[in-house]
Amino acid sequence: MQSKPLRRAVAVLLCVQPTFWVSNVALAQTLADPRQSTRRPSATTGEGSSPPGESEDDLSEPGGFDLETGGEAEGIGTGSRAATRSGMSVPAISRTPPIDEPVDPDKYILGTGDVLELNFWGLQNFRMRMIVDVEGRAFVPKVGYFSLAGKTLSQARRLLRESVARYYPRLGFDVTLAEPRTFLVQVVDDVVRPGSYSARAIERVSTLITRAGGFGKDASRRRVEIQRRDGTVARADLLLYTQTGDVKHNPFLLDGDVVRVPYEELAATIDGAVNRPGRYELIGTRDLAELVELAGGLAPRVTRKLPITVVRRAENDRQDLTLVEFGEQNPLPPASISHEDIVRIPSFEELQQAVMVVGALAGANAADEVSSTRRLTFVKGDSVRTLLERVGGVGPLADLHGGYILRQGKSVPVDLNALVALRDMKADRPVDLGDTVVVPFKRRTILVQGAVFKPGPYPYNPNYGVEQYVALAGGSSRNAQSISNVRVVSPSGETRKYKRDLKVEPGSTLVVPERNFSRPELVQIAISIAGVLLSGAAIVISTRK
Prior knowledge:
alpha+beta; Outer membrane lipoprotein wza fold like; five-stranded mixed β-sheet; 26 strands; 19% helix
């Protein structure tokens, strides 16, 4: 009887201390019912002891650390520090890989290896983990086994709510997917490294193909097949997934999937006035409209005044060029596409009147034809100076003394040294439509040609004369004329006769002429003529006798 006033006093004290009440739920329950054991019940057996072979620490997070609060976990009874409980031994939690969208519980299919977490809250706060075993079942303490393999996460959640909640009255309860399972998927056909690869149920087809080394040379990126264990086939279009980011073109993987990457059936190349030129595989209408759509549509610079060109392989393995005109109201013309076609969409630049500037321009490389050729829109009143300014000027390798304008097959010399180096505007020349301004590269070598043993280019040496360069070329051959007949052609095209003190400029050409007949040939001709004369004399003498 003495304990009743004491219990009332403690109850009043707890009522006026909400903080103390909230943080000591288990203690309040014990004081309210002195017959309740202070020993923590086991989540597995319902008794005050842990299952055989498992200790309190085995069932808790490492170090008793609460995953949600980041501090010591509160247990059910006094003196407990474990917040996580399990009916079986659970491996350490591994970090879930990044995902592109939350898991849809209506679509996620449970299987062997999935880890579910049962969360309880209210008067008691704790959680338990359960693994779907190799038989497709999961064990819940105090309740039993549940067959979960093949069910969606939503179906499993409803089943567990109906069966588990009544064993834990006055507690809130829910189920969540704590860790997705890992399984093997076969990746075959045109990938770099076909074989079996581990995957998780939250990973998509593109991840496995990357893991297999990527697509092969002729692989189809638009007709990837995922053969399911139940016989159904899903398809992935990884080209559209890359272009649009829509995950419906890149499905999730399941246990027992076989990913097949077939070879291309119909692919074509498109360039010109489109937003995304390149090579694309066609699997829909297989016409020009589908190809242009994959290429990002027509670019603003397109012109419909010129036809679309289609280069196609003919039956005799030759290439045929076909011109396809735009429609009257400028839609895309209905044109079918064949495998390996090359389609070019015209741009308005092709309608512009243009002039060319070629040679040693700023940033040009003598070995790169593209960098040394510039096509510019012709503007009335253009001159050599204005064209050179539009291309950024001449390069350091330019031969300023050899510039010229190529006009209707004839060359018009331009003194680029006076125009560029001396800024003499009198040396400027007007250009006409169709002209080509040529800025030659400066050649630093000496070219030796003609009757020498090793004709070819040789490094320029300011101390060398004609004799030294001929010696570098192996010397004069037996058919060569004398050294006095050597001719030197300067870079400007001037031809000079041999002199002992003749200066050879960089880029010059030495020509060693050949004799008309060599000495042995002259001797042979003389002997032949003498033989003919003797024979004639013998015939004349014979006839007189």
